[in-house]
Amino acid sequence: RAKRQGKNTWQWHSGLKAERSQHSVKLRHDLHTALNENQFEIHYQPLVDAVTGRMRSVEALVRWKHPTRGMISPGEFIPLAEQTGQIIPLGLWILKQACIEIADFNAQRERGLRVAVNISSLQFIRGGFLDDVRRVLAETGLPPQLLELEVTESVLLDGAEPVIELMETLKTLGVRVALDDFGTGFSSLSYLRDLPTHKVKLDRSFVEKTTTDHRIAAIVQGVITMAHHMDMIVVAEGIETREQQDDLARRHCDILQGYLFAQPMPLADLKKLPDLLPVNPAR
Ligand code: C2E
Ligand code: MG
Ligand code: MG
Ligand code: MG
Description:
Bound molecules: ligand C2E, magnesium ion
Number of strands: 9
Low-confidence stretches: none
Protein name: cyclic-guanylate-specific phosphodiesterase
Strand content: 15-25%
Shape: globular
Mean pLDDT: 89
Largest sheet: 8 strands, mixed, barrel
Organism: Marinobacter algicola DG893
């Protein structure tokens, strides 16, 4: 009986697997039309100063409004777009759209807001990316100082030298590069040593445990101290509670981002947001 049950389980699993891959075949197909039909939209999540609570910048996070499936999260379709190569035109659209929208947002303000755009490794290391950035800045009028690019350690998989060179060139343009999801990859420390980045973003998987796991807390404190010695700014992602906010602020983390302050939102909502973000009283 146990055997039969095992077999049934196997059949069930493989059925589920087939269904899942059918699902992704369909999504992959839909991705092709999605760009032409304007199904993507960018939401913005504020990053706040850990001391003053003032909004310092926003992160652009793409959303796919699928005509029949509703909202699909980037965690699901970005990997597919990377597999099909669609990430190149999609990534360029995101970069340009974010620059257009934030330039528009800034037109009504005294002080310019900075926008951080996530860049896939494939997109970043592809020849031509630098030209894309230059062209988008020229076409949208966003000052280079107000653009930041978020990349992960995986940009280094095919070798560090061209990446370091590209980052140096971006830096001379005035565009900053931040290291995203820090702590989730391999040999993070040597990357920190080599990369001319000005900011590290501590991954949420650390942030959610600093208050309960003293070893994680030690790593987080170590990264913050080390980054500061290297003249880098540290961001903590995924702040959901006041306890986490207090803990990271006490450890001199510079910038905080998370649902405690604000969720990612459409541009229209961002325009209504006050400069000083009160902590969501419901939490
Ligand atoms: P990421 O760049 O690390 O972005 C942070 C993710 O954490 C976002 O998820 C954001 O909505 C979520 N988040 C922020 N605060 C909190 C919090 O307090 N709690 C929790 N549980 N989550 C929080 P999202 O928008 O679903 O994006 C997921 C990932 O997809 C991003 O991770 C990034 O790797 C990728 N992605 C998103 N937009 C783009 C894009 O325009 N281009 C590329 N290449 N990748 C993107
Ligand atoms: Mg990011
Ligand atoms: Mg991140
Ligand atoms: Mg992350």
